[in-house]
Structure to design on (478 residues):
């Protein structure tokens, strides 16, 4: 079990005194049994192309090139209602088994995941998706496989693929709205959601994902203008706010006016909810804080075994502005959700604001496909627990099944935000909790787990230290 340095111990103590780490367990006021379920999934990354099951990514050999050209030609010609027959037919013979680790979601895995989601909906009145409907490089691969493609053809194919994915999700969940945040791959560039993609797809996102819930003109206009929106579900004292957080990331070609507009809009929505006595569920794709995977790589350590720099999810000024806004409205946000990392993890954004990150359906980063079913307290509209559902891809996939339940795995009960805050130091104090967390991080695919004894400080500090300087100092004093 790792030992805490005096500095780390003092910093944890200061977090506790600030209310970031509160008492939990059986004595902290469990919300009881008056709960309702909400199913959350993320990072589908559907890929319509044939993906040969070899390590190292997509193979552009002549056989695969021709097979994809033949398949995509038919996908372009056929209506999306006819796509399943193509995906299960002879043209797709290489892709009839669910995607292997390190690949995006093919039709076999998509069907398996959505069948499991449908089976586990229960009494869910809401389904949440935290971004990336579409596969990595979907636009670019279209032009790779169809070398004679005309300008605009790739855009049209991306739009058609999105339609197919949304139709498949809608068929699985029935009439339940799917409240979503958009991810970077929900775009033509892979660095989106970009403005042209938003303008072309706002209407179908509203109709097929949200099932036309809420004020259509407002939601469609907001999505088209910036990739964010707010909606107030009927019969609930609730506002769901979905942000375009990939626009806040480094190196993304985004007009600063769009960022300013989103922050002003976000502040206004939280003020509106606060004044009306409504609670807020906050949805995003890319979370704030550090990119643990790249920061924890061996090449990032200096000769003294310390990290010299950190890769951050967002531009520092954007994160500071975001934190300033949520801190203005304590108690208003009762649930915060994100995706993007493909891993089962969490982050403590500020006192009382814990962010739950749901693992991806796509096993692109070595994770097993997974999703979560949250239990929320009917009075507070805050989560009290969740069950993770996963599909073990190795040695061969069978089906999705229950993986673990948070309260049982960590022996913590009550409001989830408080439980997650208590779990943060417990991951150092308890070897059992640390083992559970590191296994769950990749949804059970331990062969692909990137967490080692050397970089564990990066992953642990990434939970509780959002500021870049504070994060680097915490890692180096671990």
């Amino acid at each position: 079990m790792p030992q805490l340095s005096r500095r780390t111990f003092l910093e944890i103590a200061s977090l506790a005194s600030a209310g970031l780490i509160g008492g939990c367990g059986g004595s902290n006021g469990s919300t009881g049994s008056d709960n309702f379920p909400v199913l959350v999934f993320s990072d589908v990354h559907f890929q319509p192309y044939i993906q040969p099951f070899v390590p190292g990514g997509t193979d552009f050999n002549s056989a695969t090139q021709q097979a994809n050209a033949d398949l995509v030609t038919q996908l372009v010609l056929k209506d999306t209602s006819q796509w399943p027959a193509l995906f299960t037919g002879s043209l797709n013979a290489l892709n009839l088994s669910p995607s292997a680790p390190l690949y995006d979601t093919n039709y076999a895995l998509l069907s398996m995941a959505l069948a499991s989601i449908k089976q586990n909906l229960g009494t869910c009145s809401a389904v949440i998706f935290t971004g990336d409907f579409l596969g990595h490089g979907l636009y670019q691969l279209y032009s790779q496989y169809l070398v004679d493609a005309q300008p605009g053809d790739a855009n049209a194919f991306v739009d058609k693929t999105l339609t197919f994915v949304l139709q498949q999700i809608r068929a699985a969940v029935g009439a339940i709205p799917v409240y979503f945040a958009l991810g970077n791959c929900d775009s033509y560039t892979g660095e989106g959601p970009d403005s042209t993609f938003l303008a072309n797809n706002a209407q179908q996102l509203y109709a097929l994902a949200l099932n036309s819930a809420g004020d259509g003109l407002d939601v469609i206009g907001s999505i088209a203008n910036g990739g964010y929106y707010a909606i107030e579900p009927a019969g609930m004292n609730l506002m769901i706010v979905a942000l375009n957080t990939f626009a806040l990331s480094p190196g993304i070609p985004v007009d600063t006016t769009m960022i300013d507009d989103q922050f002003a809009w976000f502040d206004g929505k939280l003020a509106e909810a606060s004044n009306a006595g409504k609670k807020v569920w906050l949805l995003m794709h890319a979370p704030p804080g550090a990119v643990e995977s790249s920061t924890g790589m061996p090449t990032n350590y200096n000769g003294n075994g310390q990290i010299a720099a950190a890769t951050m999810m967002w531009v520092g000024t954007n994160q500071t502005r975001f934190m300033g806004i949520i801190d203005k409205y304590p108690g208003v946000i009762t649930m915060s959700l994100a995706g993007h990392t493909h891993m089962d993890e969490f982050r403590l954004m500020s006192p009382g604001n814990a962010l739950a990150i749901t693992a991806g359906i796509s096993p692109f980063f070595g994770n097993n496909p997974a999703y979560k079913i949250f239990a929320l307290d009917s009075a507070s509209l805050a989560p009290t627990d969740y069950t993770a559902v996963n599909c073990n891809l190795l040695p061969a996939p069978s089906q999705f099944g229950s993986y673990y339940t948070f309260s049982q795995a960590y022996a913590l009960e009550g409001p989830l935000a408080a439980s997650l805050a208590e779990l943060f130091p417990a991951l150092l104090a308890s070897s059992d909790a640390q083992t559970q967390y590191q296994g769950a991080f990749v949804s059970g695919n331990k062969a692909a787990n990137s967490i080692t004894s050397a970089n564990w400080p990066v992953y642990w500090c990434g939970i509780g230290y959002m500021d870049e300087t504070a994060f680097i100092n915490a890692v180096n004093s671990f």
